[in-house]
Description:
There is one protein chain. By secondary structure, this protein is of the alpha/beta class. The protein has a domain at 226-323. Helices cover 33% and strands 23% of the residues. An 8-stranded mixed β-sheet has the order 7-8-9-3-10-11-13-12, sandwiched between helices. Strands 1, 2, 4, 5 and 6 form a 5-stranded antiparallel β-sheet that branches. A hairpin with a 2-residue loop joins β5 and β6 (76-77). α4 (111-123) packs across α5. The longest helix is centred in the middle third of the chain and has 18 residues, at 189-206.
Amino acid sequence: MAEPLLRVQNLVVETRAAGRPVPLLRGLDLELAAGQAMGLVGESGAGKSLTGLALMGLVPTGLRVAGASRIGWRGRDLAGLGQREWRPLRGSELALIPQHPMTALNPTRTVGSQMRYLLRLHQGRDRHSASAEAAAALARTGLPEADRVLELYPHQLSGGMSQRVLIAMAMLNRPRLLIADEVTSALDVTTQAAILDQLTGLCRDSGTALLLITHDLGIVARSCRTVAVMYCGQIVEQGPLEAVFARPRHPYTAGLLAAVPGRIDPPDGRLHSIAGQVPDSDRRPPGCPFAPRCARATRRCAEHEPDRVAEQDRLFRCIHPLD
Length: 323
């Protein structure tokens, strides 16, 4: 098997509260190969977006990558890089499509100005060739009249147009890894489908690895071959999409799947939900963090944190996994 492009080992991101370290991401491990599309799913507060930021060296002020964290990228460890060392990698080898497309662009500069800057920075293009490449990148996302869009300011774009511009910008320098964070959350269903197809098609054609961060399992089912399920700063289950969705091993994964409308018809006609909510990082319970919400939990779950179990095509953390 080919060496993965990205190999994350024991990724820990922490803050401090009351003078002590509080982990927000707790020992994450994941791998991505060239051309692979992986969905990273979980409820709000699970740590999905922070994972994406950490992989780009963009951990917010007040947080830090700690411990023996390793972000292996093509044989190089990125975990300890300074901002000067990160600069040539972002937007070229690794790219991020952030949440909230309507606020992610610089409001004082035209679309063309922002795209030309990326091409000059990473490829040394002149204005003419940069403009031509920017227009071509916009056209590949399905935007009509790409030359006209280059002259627009962000406030003149619709939500769908803004999202396509961000995709085009992320793919401008043909990155080896693209992290897409909730790329369709503010869009209507028809536009969502079109953008997902364009995004996955662009990645497939260029051999780009895709980490798709979302809370929507339907999006993952449409776009990914593998899935990682996050809860309380950990990956609690990971494996091939079809296997995980057909036979989840972690009760949290099963709960998320049961909450998808129409996927599992409840006998009483009510939509299933998982009781409770993701605990705050500084109030995380001892033992298994999902135990307070889990119908299968025992005293052992409340007292002992589950180890990671490798089982055929699957990884999961659960003391009492589903059959």
